[in-house]
Automatic annotation (TrEMBL):
Any one Gene Ontology cellular component term annotated for this protein: cytosol
Known role: Converts N-acetylmannosamine-6-phosphate (ManNAc-6-P) to N-acetylglucosamine-6-phosphate (GlcNAc-6-P).
InterPro entries associated with the record: Aldolase_TIM, NanE, RibuloseP-bd_barrel
Residue ranges that the Swiss-Prot or TrEMBL entry lists as coiled coil: none
Protein source organism: Faecalibaculum rodentium
Molecular function GO labels: N-acylglucosamine-6-phosphate 2-epimerase activity
Record NCBIfam families: PRK01130.1
Descriptive protein name: N-acylglucosamine-6-phosphate 2-epimerase
EC number annotated for this UniProt entry: 5.1.3.9
């Protein structure tokens, strides 16, 4: 069942049929500047976006100060060589995101093993108990993980990590048929959002038609170096796949 908390429902209902822009920048990105994520967020607000998704307490605070009227989905990417789990992997990151001011906390809810030796999706229950006021956004990679996230009480579920796990690592396009099945089966119990591999407004509209509550778009809007690389890779015969750059650890 979707949350019955009036405050949470008001925020989540305000995102319906809207665009959420993922405003993230890493220190080794060619577009990096200290205020780049703020400019991204201000541009998203100007365009009519209904929310922001961003990485790290530092960037969350900067965006909340600049565009306080837009709700923030916060996460914290932490990479380790022994695991593919990198989105908000422990309670330390969960608490830091909440303290930074994010209304919504995104975390890895796949069945992968973390650097700490736990199963990633086990963190959701712990986080909900420790911060019951927060809204939790489950990043999954397949139907099974979506079902588990809904069962454990995720407020939002999205196939964010489709293409980022061992089973799906060679995927570069969204699986709209599978997303439609998730919306059909879980839409009454969680807010289903689409995130991952959406590169055009037309694809975003398709997702709304299939049942998405909202659509999150990042690289196609806020990472022009990756957009340019999609062109050069295809025009050069795919001698160097841009997806490797998108998946790179920082």
């Amino acid at each position: 069942m979707k949350t019955q908390d009036a405050k949470k429902r008001e925020l989540l209902d305000g995102l319906k049929d809207g665009l959420i822009v993922s405003c993230q920048v890493q220190h080794d990105d060619p577009i990096y500047t200290d205020d780049m994520v703020v400019k991204m967020a201000e541009a998203a607000r100007w365009a009519g976006a209904k929310g922001i998704r961003t990485n790290s307490p530092e960037q969350i605070r900067a965006i909340k100060e600049a565009v306080p009227e837009l709700p923030v989905i916060g996460l914290w990417k932490v990479w380790h060589d022994d695991t593919d789990v990198f989105i908000t992997p422990t309670m330390e990151e969960v608490k830091a995101i909440w303290d930074a001011g994010a209304e919504i906390i995104a975390l890895d809810c796949t069945k992968q093993t973390t650097h700490e030796g736990t199963v990633a999706w086990d963190l959701l229950e712990q986080a909900k108990k420790e911060i019951p006021e927060a809204i939790f956004f489950a990043d999954v990679s397949n139907y099974e993980e979506a079902a588990h996230a809904v069962e454990k009480g995720a407020d939002i579920v999205a196939p964010t990590l489709y293409g980022y796990t061992a089973e799906t690592k060679d995927i570069s396009e969204p699986d709209l048929r599978e997303f439609a099945r998730m919306c059909r089966d879980f839409g009454d119990d969680a807010y289903m959002m689409m995130e991952g591999h959406i590169y055009s407004p037309e694809d975003a509209v398709k997702c709304l038609f299939l049942g998405a509550h909202s659509v999150v778009v990042g690289s196609a809007i806020t990472r022009p170096h990756l957009t340019a690389k999609r062109f050069t890779d295809l025009m050069g015969g795919l001698q160097d796949n841009w997806r490797n750059a998108e998946r790179a650890k920082h």
